[in-house]
Amino acid sequence: MPEIRIFVAEVPPAEPQRKESPNEINRITMEQLLHYVWRHKIYPLQPLRTTAGLPVEVIDPGLPNRDAGPDFFNAKVKIDGTLWVGNVEVHLRASDWMRHGHQHDRAYDSVVLHVVGEADCDVARTDGTAVPQLVLPCPAEVERRYGELRRAEVMPPCYAVLPSLPRLTVHSWLSALQAERLWQKAEAIRRRLERCGGYWEDAFFITLARNFGFGLNGDAFEAWAKLLPLRAVDKHRDDLFQVEAFFFGMAGLLEEDDPGADDYCLRLGREFRYLRHKFGLPAPLPPSQWRFLRLRPGNFPHVRLAQLAWLYHTQQALFSRVMEAETADEVKKLLQAGTSAYWTEHYTFRKTSPRKEKKLGANALDLILINTVVPFLYAYGQHKADDALCERAARFLESLKAEDNYVTRMWDGAGIPVTSAADSQALLQLQKAYCDRRDCLRCRFGYEYLKAGKAW
Question: Are 227 and 301 contained in the same domain?
Answer without folding.
Answer: yes
